[in-house]
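WARN  no MSA supplied for this record, continuing single-sequence
INFO  ligand: GLP
INFO  echoing inputs
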Amino acid sequence: MQIVKAYSYQELSKKASEIVIKAIAKKPDLVLGLATGSTPLGLYQLLVEANKNGEADFSKVKTFNLDEYAGLKKDNTQSYHYFMQENLFSKINIEKENIHILGDEGKSPEEECKIYEDKIKEAGGIDLQILGIGSNGHIAFNEPGSSKDSRTRIIKLDEKTRQDNARFFRSIDEVPTHAFTMGIGTILEAREIILLAGKSKKEIIQKVISSQPIPEIPASFLKLHSNCAFIIEE
Ligand code: GLP
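INFO  complex generated
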């Protein structure tokens, strides 16, 4: 695991955008894994600019989002469907059929997860996965206790996660109790991974760095990946 230090949020976003832009230039039909949360917002803004300037063409890029709340409608302003549309997809030249987000098939949760895994395989696997990190060490919505071999599934959200994410809802009671998430095993199959962590994640990043790979700190499993970088704001 490589640690890349950034000295501002702007620099963190810039470093991440350079990696994504280079990857698209090298492979125009890149399979890109995407994250939500406030951390990747700067990256998404830079990707929108790069698309406008002609530096990044998304016309052949396929995307797979990491997670989505269970039980929220796509047009709910707190859904990750809405977030992605607002912050990235509506502003770049991506084809609608190349966008994948969990919970889209109108099937049972188990079927949704199986179809998602199949679609990732059909696309040839994820080339580059963007990750954020929860204050409890979760990646996507793989909460503490998730195994390194876990696959895409429905998970019960930790109370800590619901509290952290309550800032986006009117009250904590509106925060869903469950979510769809790619598994840790699914994430570890990506060819390259970059995890972005702003200043507020200092404590959990220290824990990840000093820990062995253990289920109590799901992000620590990224240490098992041979091409994973943490871009951290100092
Ligand atoms: C949510 C998402 C994660 C994300 C985390 C951190 O829980 N499911 O994928 O990494 O939030 O969000 P933020 O970047 O807002 O701190």
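The helical segments are 9-26, 41-52, 80-87, 109-122, 159-165, 184-188, 202-210.
INFO  checksum written, moving to next record
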